[in-house]
Amino acid sequence: MPLILHNLSPLHWSLAGAGIAVITLLLVFISNHRLGISTGFEDICSLVLPQPYFRRAGIRSGRGWRLPFLAGLVLGGFLSAALGGGWALTWELGRFDAVIGFGHVGKLAWMFAGGLFIGFGTRLAGGCTSGHGIFGLSNLEWPSLVATASFMAGGMVTTQLIYRVLFAGM
Amino acid sequence: MLGFYILAGTAFGFLLSRSGAADYNYIQAMFLFESFQLYGIIGTAVVIGAAGLWLVKRGGKTAFGRPVAIELKPMHRGNVVGGLLFGVGWSVAGMCPGPILVNIGEGKVYALAALAGALVGAGAFGVFYDRLQNLLGLPPLTLGPGEG
Fold this sequence. Notes:
By secondary structure, chain A is mainly alpha-helical.
């Protein structure tokens, strides 16, 4: 299956997995940080929200590396598009376009709703695919196994509902 | 170090972009059991990561000679409830937190709406932390739900 991005062929899973492991290990070995992205959302919130939750040491001490790391993620996506066929704004969404087919406004509403679940859920869970799924599991942490099993289950049920029930006949 | 963080993020973002981890179709195919790709990526990353972390912790020192200090995440009911909610969002948007930013970089316009939602969601969590703390037995504020 080609990627939505310029119909590129994806890297082999073993290569991508090994590369992700190398970056994870470098973050620990060079700068003593555990990989984790969802706290970065709180770091961004902490720039404008005054509540005590956003003033805790765990957030303030992490901003110095998480915010540049997040900026790097955007840059990585930009370079991937630019080097892989050229950078351009796009609304393409693969299977969603073929099956659900909402227009631009519907797509934005759909994505905003998904984002709410992502932002609230990852912070309540104490991490996301990177912090729990990759780092936490690599470090053999029980809470990460529980959280990973929970978000995989949540995703499986939801996608099955969307594509096999709600929009099955379309 | 600033350059290292940006570089590490860029490499990570590029890998997510080119591997399918930031691709709506691959996320749905994973949850529909139609594709092994993302299971293979996470599995490989965890196996190599576990071996490497064991070695780094056994060595006990970072490249600059500081003691390796890995803060562990606390166990609480939010791991399950939050995990389930995040799973719903991952399925709906077809992105987890890293790929939201990667997709914005790629030029996918709708990813901006996912980021806006994620910031509102994370903001609401922090604003209502004291109330959620009682409801779900979350750790004290100074500890938080776990960073990552």
